[in-house]
Design goal:
mainly alpha; ABC transporter involved in vitamin B12 uptake, BtuC; two-stranded antiparallel sheet; 2 strands; globular
Length: 292
């Protein structure tokens, strides 16, 4: 029973990280119908920035804030410089552009910070809580991870449902032509959407970094798992992204604990294929996939 509890707590912690990256993919998909395959590279760059700031200043929270700000700015720049010129073209153009950006960011990170992975300090202790005389695999930093992702998801929900900016972003995503006729700056809303998505991805990078060594290719697997979580929950559903991340995190934790860590990637692939075959629109999508 104790093993099951440990695996469950570990799955929740990992699932919230997948949820944060999945949320960033969902935000961009809702706004522009583009899957940002460069998200892993973008959060990798901001995590390296945080590592450099922490190493030079000794302040974790300064590095944390600078990394989030860098992610926000990077998302806006990528949308304006790279994505906007290809938004009106065939969907494959945007896919190629984001994949090219991923390769570029990984190469730049290798040139600046080197290819040797480095450790990253946690904000709080990673030592598990002691419960009934035994130490569980869930500590203060895991609590911070869960609260940070839930707080980010709640803030985005409040933005979209309770502010004028959120209403304009929803209108631009739902019907760009009608939104323009109502005076909404649709391209500006796209930029805001990309910036917020990059901010969410940067948060995920900071949260997962203490558990892995930070390197140019470290976050590729995280992006794959997050994409699976986004598809599982529904690519146009922020709530689905959070729930999909939790479901995937728990599933992979159980697979790793009971069947072996070597089967984790295969299990994620099996979940992705099963969702695409049974319910391709996702579990919480507001739209239905058209079947021929």
């Amino acid at each position: 029973m104790s093993r099951f509890i440990d695996l469950t707590l570990n799955g929740i912690s990992n699932g919230m990280i997948y949820a944060a990256v999945a949320l960033s993919l969902v935000l961009i998909w809702r706004a522009t119908r583009i899957i940002n395959f460069a998200q892993g590279g973008m959060l990798m760059i901001t995590t390296f920035i945080a590592s450099s700031i922490i190493g030079s200043s000794g302040s974790y929270w300064l590095g944390f804030v600078v990394a989030l700000a860098a992610g926000l700015a990077m998302g806006a720049v990528v949308e304006r410089v790279l994505v906007r010129p290809v938004e009106g073209g065939p969907p494959l153009n945007a896919v190629i552009a984001t994949l090219g950006l991923l390769i570029l960011l990984q190469a730049v990170a290798g040139m600046i910070w080197g290819g040797t992975p480095r450790s990253f300090p946690p904000a709080f202790s990673i030592r598990g809580y002691e419960v009934s005389g035994r130490r569980v695999l869930f500590g203060p930093f895991d609590t911070f991870t869960v609260l940070a992702v839930l707080g980010a998801a709640g803030a985005l929900a409040l933005l979209f449902r309770g502010t004028g900016l959120g209403l304009q972003m929803r209108a631009a995503a739902f019907d760009p032509l009608a939104a323009r006729l109502q005076g909404v700056r649709v391209t500006g809303m796209y930029t805001v959407g990309w910036a917020l998505a990059a901010l969410s991805g940067s948060l995920a990078g900071l949260l997962v970094a203490p558990a892995v060594f930070v390197g140019p290719n470290t976050f590729d697997a995280i992006l794959v798992f997050a994409f699976t979580a986004a598809v599982l929950g529904g690519l146009d559903s922020p709530v689905g992204a959070v729930i999909g991340g939790l479901v995937l995190g728990l599933s992979l934790s159980y697979v790793s604990g009971y069947a072996g860590s070597s089967l984790v990637t295969l299990a994620a692939l099996a979940i992705l294929i099963a969702v695409l075959m049974v319910r391709p629109e996702g579990l919480f999508s507001s739209t239905r996939a058209r079947r021929i």
